[in-house]
Amino acid sequence: MAMVDPTRPARRGLMLILSSPSGAGKSTLTRTLSQRETNLDLSISVTTRGKRPSEMDGVHYRFIDRDAFDLLRQRDELLEWAEVHGNGYGTPCKPVEEALKAGRDVLFDIDYQGTQQILEKAREDVVAIFILPPSMAELRSRLVRRAEDAPEVIARRLDNARDEIARWSVYDYVIVNDDFGAAYESVRSILAAERLKRSRAVGMAAFVETLLAEKVG
Ligand code: ADP
Ligand code: 5GP
Q: Structure pTM?
């Protein structure tokens, strides 16, 4: 059984969602956060998209075929799902539910369609951050520099970027990722503050009761 620390009241985990048009830097932010932060699980999505050279199955995504994706949807095993750039993407429910119950936070790199679905299901548990590029020219050069997608894929991602950017007002916070270090610090500050929110501190009432009952001389 887990030890209960009386000075750390139990809390429910939160869902930290990072979205951006492709190339604005959310994967880099997500990776850095999950390496440096404790008590933060990365949600591994399933996708029907082909694996990029730098990606590993089960680490960046679970790469599955269309039939397996459709089956997960039919069985209602996805917390949200969307078609993005012609491929299916989705978030398996189970690991998320388990983490939140255990008081661990979960980090998501998903698009605005998935964000909207999770907001409709669990508004109170969600902190949604949108990452913007400093300019469209910089967005293009980041996609080219990343050198992981074919030229026609980059062109399609740039076409879609304007539609995605137009969804910025769905989000709780918006950060312009110009200087990476500054953008990372902004995300970290948001996470630190949101973790302290009273509504997540499910054990706080009991803690306060104990505090008030304590006799001191
Ligand atoms: P996304 O996940 O939003 O598609 P990535 O995180 O893959 O974007 O970033 C796209 C490219 O831009 C990567 O090569 C990454 O190293 C680079 N990048 C990310 N943030 C910055 C930044 N603030 N300044 C310059 N390059 C960046
Ligand atoms: P990429 O192919 O560049 O990895 O991701 C393309 C887009 O799909 C990104 O905007 C990314 O955030 C989004 N995405 C990745 N996983 C999911 C998911 O599980 N659900 C949804 N809705 N979008 C996802």
A: 0.92
